[in-house]
Amino acid sequence: MFIKNKKLAGILGFILVASPSMMALAQQPPPIVPPPLGGPGPVQSPEEAISLLRQVLVWLATIFWILAVIFIFWSAFNYLTARGDQEKADKAKKMLWYAIVAIAIGLMAYAIPTFVDRFLRARA
């Protein structure tokens, strides 16, 4: 019981020591950072933004597809080697569900750029 009170006193002491410096730093405005001198950013039109988003999501979808295949094989291996052990079989079933979720995310990665494109074109 006495050790817990010591820890609490140490935490309160740290807060009392640190709080004035945190309050002083909180009152200063953040520094103004000038824009880079290289000109405009790499994306200059909605078409380029959609293209970049599509490329990134295709890479993510590819990673999810690979992970889904690995999880399916791994869960099948675990299910076959469970040998009647219900806990291992349940673990394999959960892994199969994770693979299904990875497949769903991979499929969504192909649909997201279309939704963003429609949203941007509706605003323009």
Summarize the structure.
The chain has a domain at 45-124. Helices cover 79% and strands 0% of the residues. It contains three helices and no strands.
Question: What do these coordinates show?
Answer:
This protein is an all-alpha fold and 124 residues long. It has a domain at 45-124. It has 3 helices and no strands. Helix 2 runs antiparallel to helix 3 (86-123). The chain starts with a helix and ends with a helix. The model has no long low-confidence stretch (mean pLDDT 77).
Q: What is the overall number of helices?
A: 3
Given as residue ranges, the uncertain stretches (5+ residues, pLDDT < 50) are none
CA-atom Rg in angstroms: 26 Å
Label the overall shape.
Answer: flat
Which H/E pattern describes the elements?
A: HHH
Instruction: Compute the average pLDDT.
Output: 77
Number of E-state strands: 0
Strand content: under 5%
Which helices and strands appear, and what pairs or packs with what?
Elements: H1 2-26, H2 46-80, H3 86-123
What descriptors fit this protein?
124 residues; mainly alpha; flat
